[in-house]
Each structure stands twice: as structure tokens, then as C-alpha cells.
User: What shape does this take?
Amino acid sequence: MTDVLGLASIMTLYQAGNGIYNLFDKVLVLDGGKEVFYGPREEARPFMEELGFVCHEGSNVADFLTGVTVPTERIIRPDCETTFPRNAEMLYAEYQKSPVHARMIAEYDFPTSDEAAEKTRLFKERVAMEKDPRLPASSPLTAGFGTQVKACIIRQYQIIWGDKATFFVKQITCLSIVLIAGSLFYNAADDSRGLFLKGGALFFSLLFHTMLALAEVMNSFSGRPIMIKHRYFGYYHPAAFCIAQITSDIPVIFLSVSIFSVVLYFMVGLRSTAGAFFTYWVVLFASSMVSSVRCNPQLGQT
Assistant: This one.
């Protein structure tokens, strides 16, 4: 898009290799927030080498350009030990004397030129063609809401699968805790003597999954800046992210509640009927889902 429409793409990269560096047209070098060079990529290295800085053949050019501002990293030719620019002010003064500086000053009027206006118009037309026809013209989004939800759901499952260790550790931890809890209420009597134990087991079932949802609050807060950034960049609507997050929680909570219910229900010795068990399971699953949504700051609820 940068080459076709002549638009400016600004990027900051950490330790960019020569393959990435060679894709750019212009380079801006800063020292302490001050500009020391701005010009074509292919002229940046020769400019610095003329001032006495050494870039070995095959070295990373991007690291070389940033290294000229660091006294412990830059290498100086022996014949330039007394003349090379030692700080940002001296380096910028040398840059002002170069023909590169004059050419860059001449390009300052490009944003207001007819060529820039025409390319901007073409860019807007291309974005409008790619935009979902059901979206308002003023919307910064380009994909429909259904497409956004689908993309967000895929992203959420990829996040879960990318951290498989945490997922399995949670399930193993849940199984361990329910085995311990089940042993505390093990085989409660069916008469009034077991009423307190069975009531405690039911209360613990609800409390455990509520506390488990509260443990996700920190993860939700850490992901909130990403959601806000994606919203400002027009990637997707926050509602799509919320729906995707709830959808991705369903199989995780389903597995967790199922493990918990099967173990605790029969260890305590609650009523052995399908209706009673599935009523217990549904109540636990519903309370877990509600707690998970209620405790998620990314959904606008606290």
C-alpha cells in the first residue's frame, strides 16, 4: 500500500535486520529525542562513514546507525579520532551542512501538493471499496460485526492454545482441590446428620467457581490496553471482543465444571438421580458463567 498509493508508513523496530532495513525508503536517527539524520536509506550509512564512524562489512546497518549515538558501541576510524561529532548537537550540525538536509527540506511541501491530495483520494476510495456495505460511512471499521466476532473468537482460542500449560495446570489444580474437598464431605449421611455437610458441599461448589473467576481479574486488566488500542485502530468493536471472550470461556468452564461436579457430587453422596445431578451441574455452570462475565473489567463491569 505504501508503494502503490505513495503513502507514508512510519515504524519503529527493535534490532531490525538488514532484510527489514532495506525495505524502507527513508531513515530517521534520533539521539536523546533530537534528530541527527533524516534522509534516504541508502545514504545513511555513507553519511555516517564520512564522519569517521566505522561499519564493518556484513554488519547490521540499523544497529550501526543507532550505535553512532552510543559512546560504548561506536567505532571511530583512527584518522578521525579528533574530528568526529561527539554528541547530538555536533552530529546534527554536520547533517545540516550535507546536501541530504537540503533535499529533505525541499520535500516538506509534499503533503500540501496536488500529488499528495490525489493519492490520498485514491486511498480513501480503496478503503471504501473494501468496507462492508452494512457499516456506516463514518465508521472507521472495514469488516462487518459478524466477521469481527469470528476473528476475535479465533484469536481468543489461539491465545488459549498458545498457553496450553496454564490451561492444563488449571484443570489439574481444579481436580486436586475437588478431591480434597470431596474427602472433607465424603459420603455424608442421608439423614439430618448429613444435612450440614451436604449444605456445606453445595455452598462450597458455588463459592469455588466464583473465586476461580475472581482470579482472572488481573489477566483481564492486563489485556484491556490491547483491546482499547485495537478499538482506536479500527480493528474491531469492543462488543465483538466481549462476545468472543464469553464464547471462548464456555468450553473452558464446561470442562472445569464437569470435572468438579462429577467428583464432588458422587463423593459427597448427593441424590443419585439424573435429574438432580444435571440440575446441580446446570446451576454450577450458570453461576460460573455469570461470575466470569461479572468479574471481567474488559466487559465494562466491575
Summary: The radius of gyration is 31 Å. Confidence is low (pLDDT under 50) at residues 294-302. DSSP finds 13 helices and two strands in the chain. The chain has two domains: 2-122, 145-299.
